[in-house]
């Protein structure tokens, strides 16, 4: 029997813990039924370097906002299958795939998903995209929420919506209370200027009583898609206090990469993409990749189910790349072993697995059975490169495994 979306989320999130944690997990599970990430918060450029995508590769990924799935398609693999437990994320990914094939040119595609705040986007949807959607996805975007059709979010500033968009709005509110204006950061032309902005304007915010109070609540990071189990891992990296970990992640986001080259920083602190002609953008939105994306979009598909369930229906040795995002941080040992058993069964020799962790440490040794994990080689050098290069800066570690067969 097919599980409902809510039942799948409950199975993924609910762990055996105390009553208070259980209540928070149930709340998080229900929030995840809606849109969480209007933009994925993992760097696809880092992913693609680690995956070494070839035309023969069949990839599977957790989709989130689907910036990753569409970016991989632009690299020309044989197929990319995305899964997500949020029906809203699946609807978003299918919308992007249909738009890549149906919109007349890159300018229209960028207007819809890059700007995502123009009244004319409704006409683009009605004229070009709507009739290319499957009935379920069309019903989602034509449906109403708070008296407006869901598709209207692309007229009013899509990246201000969803759980992450509202969380970033709250961050900007706290910044205003601290009299911080992010405009000088977005105009910075050197890493030294960015570091000075952080030291003078942002570091003092972490000493505010309000910020310290809010950071102490495990539900405070739900807007980042961080459930209680992952919050606890972050806090453990800070000696039991999540605040120093958050401070360092914000510092890395602001200071370790030129602001003109980091669209994650623009989304966090400008709440949009840089409007300059040579702006940093996700690979799928870049003009030079649009022809390849349009050509390969039909090789992508999205389904509303867990990755473990999807792989259980795949043939042995059928996959060459697996993208797990940070989902394993949510899992107990039984769930981890069930997932890796299916990954190992469906992996071809040389297949790659990539994932992120909230904390710095690789969480698999000692938890995934040795008889499974010993068939994989951990690429320490590639993992370190990915951790350093990931412009989103929100995770403690990027990890890469290669299948030995």
Instruction: State the helicity in percent bands.
Output: 40-55%
| CATH architecture designation of the largest domain | 3-Layer(aba) Sandwich
Outline the biggest β-sheet.
Answer: 7 strands, mixed
Q: How many domains, as an integer? A: 2
User: What strand line-up does the widest sheet have?
Assistant: 5-2-1-6-7-9-8
Molecular shape? globular
Tell me what you see in this structure.
The chain is built from 21 helices and nine strands. It is α/β, with parallel strands linked by helices and 405 residues long. It has two domains: 44-160 and 283-403, Vaccinia Virus protein VP39 (Rossmann fold); 179-269, no CATH class. The strands form two sheets. The chain has a seven-stranded mixed sheet with strand order 5-2-1-6-7-9-8. Strands 3-4 form a two-stranded antiparallel ribbon. Helix 19 (333-346) links the parallel strand 6 (319-323) and strand 7 (347-357). Helix 14 (228-237) packs across helix 15. The two termini are 33 Å apart. The model has no long low-confidence stretch (mean pLDDT 92).
């Amino acid at each position: 029997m097919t599980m409902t979306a809510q039942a799948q989320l409950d199975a993924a999130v609910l762990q055996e813990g105390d009553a208070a944690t259980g209540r928070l997990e149930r709340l998080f599970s229900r929030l995840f039924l809606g849109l969480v990430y209007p933009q994925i918060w993992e760097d696809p450029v880092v992913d693609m370097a680690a995956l070494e995508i070839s035309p023969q590769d069949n990839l599977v990924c957790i989709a989130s906002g689907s910036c990753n799935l569409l970016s991989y398609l632009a690299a020309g693999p044989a197929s990319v299958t995305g899964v997500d437990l949020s029906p809203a994320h699946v609807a978003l990914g299918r919308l992007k795939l249909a738009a890549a094939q149906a919109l007349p040119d890159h300018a229209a595609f960028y207007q819809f998903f890059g700007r995502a705040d123009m009244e004319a986007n409704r006409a683009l949807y009605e004229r070009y995209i709507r009739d290319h959607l499957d009935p379920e996805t069309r019903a989602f975007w034509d449906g109403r929420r708070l008296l407006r059709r869901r598709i209207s979010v692309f007229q009013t500033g899509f990246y201000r919506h969803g759980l992450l968009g509202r969380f970033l709005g709250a961050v900007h509110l706290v910044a205003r209370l601290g009299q911080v204006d992010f405009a000088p950061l977005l105009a910075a032309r050197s890493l030294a200027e960015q570091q000075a902005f952080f030291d003078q304007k942002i570091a003092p915010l972490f000493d505010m009583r309000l910020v310290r109070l809010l950071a102490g609540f495990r539900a405070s990071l739900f807007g980042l898609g961080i459930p209680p189990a992952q919050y606890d891992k972050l806090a453990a990296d800070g000696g039991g206090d999540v605040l120093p970990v958050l401070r360092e992640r914000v510092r890395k986001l602001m200071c370790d990469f030129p602001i003109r080259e980091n669209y994650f920083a623009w989304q966090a602190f400008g709440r949009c993409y840089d409007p300059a002609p040579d702006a940093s953008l996700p690979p799928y939105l870049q003009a030079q990749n649009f022809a390849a994306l349009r050509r390969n979009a039909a090789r992508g598909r999205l389904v509303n189910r867990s990755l473990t369930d999807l792989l259980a229906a795949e043939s042995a040795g059928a996959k060459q790349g697996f993208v797990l995002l940070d989902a394993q941080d949510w899992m107990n040992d039984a769930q981890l072993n069930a997932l890796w058993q299916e990954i190992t069964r469906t992996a071809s020799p040389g297949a790659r697995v990539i994932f992120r962790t909230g904390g710095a440490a690789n969480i698999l040794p000692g938890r995934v059975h040795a008889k499974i994990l010993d068939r994989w080689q951990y690429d320490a050098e590639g993992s370190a490169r990915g951790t350093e290069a990931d412009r989103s800066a929100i995770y403690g570690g990027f990890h890469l495994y290669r299948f030995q067969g």
